[in-house]
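Continuing from the previous page...

OK, I double-checked the sequence for Putative dehydrogenase against my notes and this is the correct one:
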Amino acid sequence: MNAVRSVIVVGAGAMGRTWLDTIARRSDLHVSAVVDVVEGAARSAVEERGWDAPVFSTADGALSAVHADMLLNVTIPEAHLAVSSAALRAGVPVLSEKPVTPTVAEALQLADLSESTGVLLVTSQSRRFSPGISTFRDALQARGGAGQLDTRFFQNPRFGGFRDRMDHPLLVDMAIHSFDQARFLLDEDPESVYCEEFAPSWSWFDGGAAAEAIFRFPSGARFSYSGSWCADGLVTSWNGDWRGSAPDGTVTWDGEAEVVAQGRDDDPAAVPLGPAPDGEGLDAALAEFVAALDGGPVPSGEVHLNVWSLAMVEAAVQSADRGERIVLADVFDAARRDASAR
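Thanks. Re-ran it with the corrected sequence; updated structure tokens here:
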């Protein structure tokens, strides 16, 4: 039995509080401090749960005052670089909300820092963790692997606040989930993308809230993404609605619990969902991270791996802005130059 690990949680907004409750469901973790720049936010989060954990206004303050075996970075993306860097330099492993940073260049900085300090940095891509997507992936692989993969994501959130004013709300704030899921399902990283982004006339977002993108992979596979955040009526799951075509048939996943497969000469048949021993979503992402601290496999969101999902977003935005196909290698080359110049 491993000792109870102390966790600093940085960010006490809605998502931070969800993470606090996720930690509380584990007997091997204990919140040692909560941090938030908004006065009173950390204190109220602690008091609502009946805890006596100390609160701080900065990550540096918490790291210097309390013991920590890991840090959860649930701040706004613009603060991810500073908070994660402080923890890595203090020798504290980090599990960060997505995106790991706003830009690929900053993500490469963190990857270098993680490597030089030997301290683990992982991004929580929690939508990789569900019985549905695992069963969908297994069914595709059993039929020879998808050569053509597509997802349709249509939702209609009225967030209010900063998302309504973003230049690229769908691509930057949401599409990384689908892009990361595509990497998981195809088990490879893309080489190029062509993307068009637009604003339907009825959209309540200032920026482009709809997009169509096609990614090309080294194997020759294609992944197509069709999405909108201003789609009233007949919305899809927040995981999207997926279809994969493979040499020995086709498999669909509704984004929730229905996986259906059909071969050339078969009738469509439901595929039973596999088990989820570590739960799903945040619970599973946290379990994977803790297992790595115990000497288990490298997590799927480890920063050197996860930077590819962020690069897919950055490349899609560049393609939409320029109206041309973008090669991922060029995105990384530019990001490395930017990172080295900082």
